[in-house]
Amino acid sequence: MPTNFEALPWQKGEKGNPGPEGEPGRNGLAGERGDDGIRGFTGDPGRNGDIGEPGVKGPPGNNGLSGIPGERGRQGLPGAKGFAGLPGLSGAVGEGYGIYFARHSQTTVVPQCPAGTAKLWDGFSLVHVIGNGRSHGQDLGTSGSCLRRFSTMPIMFCNINTVCNVAWRNDYSYWLSTREPMLPMMNPVEGPALQRYISRCSVCEAVSEVVAVHSQETRIPDCPSGFRSMWTGFSFMMSSGAGGRGAGQALESPGSCLEDFRATPFIECHGNGRCNHYATSYSFWLATLRAYEEFRTPISETLKAGSQEQRISRCRVCARQ
């Protein structure tokens, strides 16, 4: 391009070359908010988000309606045995038949019935009788051994010819006796004097079983668990008199536990109204037995007066509580 001419004021010059790029201008003022655009199309569903943290526990809801009853279940297995319960209260006294037993004092005093029992009657202690050569005994623990009235011959016997015999000469009766000594020269006793020789007795009623327990030792045994003591004594088994005839005692019966020991605990009476201790009278008692003497041959002994009680078994009569 020529540069050696002078431009005239009225002439238009040629377009010059672009100048260098200027500095960026300053930011302009914010424009006004434009109009809302047209709503776009719905986008595609996003991905499932992660499981959130458990929310705070809400308040309890209202009770729901009762469901339909289910079917009956099968029988379950037996449960374990439970603990024993506390003892119950004592029941009222039962009604109905009681237990009757006899108690013999072996004295002229009528014995008292044990605590918790009721007296029915008192009398005289019959052991056994012999009539027309035949013997019959009474268990001293039963009411039949306590006759209300005494006679040296309380029985009679009858035959098929409608003939009865009372106080026949070969009849005998045996009664528990007292410690009254016999007359000098061992003369028989008769009449009112016999009252001092005949043991008295009482028949009692208990509300539970009565049983005799024998130790076969000189130690008095304890009652079984659940039983209470009524009296203690010596273990009496059997008696025999004229002709070797006699009667025995059931060892479970209270009659087998006499409260007093003597070698001849009974007296023999005849139809002629007389009584005495005779050489044919024997008493049999349960003997003591040490543990090491079991299943061994017994050793013979003769025991004199004063040492006999060392070999007599002791016993206790008990009643269920």
Quick summary:
With 321 residues, the protein is mainly beta.
Uncertain residue ranges: none
> Roughly what is the average pLDDT, rounded to an integer?
86
Largest sheet: 9 strands, antiparallel
Query: Helix coverage percent of residues?
Result: under 10%
- How much of the sequence lies in strands comes to 25-35%
H/E topology pattern: EEEEEEEEEEEEEEEEE
Q: What's the count of strands?
A: 17
Radius of gyration, rounded?
A: 59 Å
Total helical elements: 0
Distance between the termini: 153 Å
Give the overall shape.
rod-shaped
**Structure class:** mainly beta
Characteristics:
nine-stranded antiparallel β-sheet; 321 residues; six-stranded antiparallel β-sheet
Q: Can you walk through the features of this model?
A:
This protein is mainly beta and 321 residues long. 0% of the residues lie in helices and 28% in strands. It contains no helices and 17 strands. The strands form three sheets. Strands 1, 2, 3, 4, 7, 8, 9, 14 and 15 form a nine-stranded antiparallel beta sheet that branches. Strands 10, 11, 12, 13, 16 and 17 form a six-stranded antiparallel beta sheet that branches. The chain is rod-shaped. 24% of the residues are buried. The mean pLDDT is 86.
